[in-house]
């Protein structure tokens, strides 16, 4: 066990809301930058997955599934593994993340830095089998974001109500990518309770090599994650990786030398939010954030958005996690 620095878990949730200009779209567009979860904590900012790491660990403690020293094992190629390693190790558990060989080196490094261990499997299917085997061998606990109701549950309890409150109830559309489906399912449930909100999910057009964070929804045995409820959504779009990259790059260019408007700083203040908006002066969002903007463009092109609509998208993570993909080839 490494000595993990303490983490202030109160810096999870109540993330800011940014107003973003989105040419070609006739209405207001807002984005919720989820990298502010744990932004000023050891090892830097988190992602949307900080929320579910906390809720899944809390649920496991409440159910009596976790004792001091329990090994936590999760198959993950990305943000969930990083978030579980940071929170789990800080809480005193051993955390082992099983990754496919092709997983980004940045994510493996982040897991090890947080004190977790990384076990590699040759491919995605083998990763799932190996994680199951590790749970049996080591009598470990697997949170399993694809089946755990604490995943959509935390979005229904926190992310969704934040979107409603931060737009003063004006939100008319929520548009988000489905990886596990937790974000779009949970936020959708919360917003629907508040009134007439159109909830649109998008899936990657190229599931096996597509948008990071989403690419394994189809074509694997997680084809239909148990917690993903596409039948509750008003629409599900298919977004090509190229469109997601295009929108992320267009956003970076649009905000060269100026900041998006901080509509609501969430639990922070404007100065702090401004401090963590940029990476080396650039406004870089992750590929799935670009994908959400691409889905919004699609809705506008179809004539589904009016001038008085208010669209909200999540920005699940910041773009500096993606040096390994062609997203920022010209920059990183
Ligand atoms: N974007 C990124 C960068 C992610 O890591 C994930 C989750 N893997 C998602 C989007 C999708 O979120 P969810 O699992 O809640 O559908």
Automatic annotation (TrEMBL):
It comes from the Archaea. Transmembrane segments: none annotated. Residues 10-317 form the Tryptophan synthase beta chain-like PALP domain. InterPro entries: Cys_Synth/Cystath_Beta-Synth, TrpB-like_PALP, TrpB-like_PALP_sf. Pfam families: PALP. PANTHER family: CYSTATHIONINE BETA-SYNTHASE. This is Cysteine synthase. It comes from Halarchaeum rubridurum.
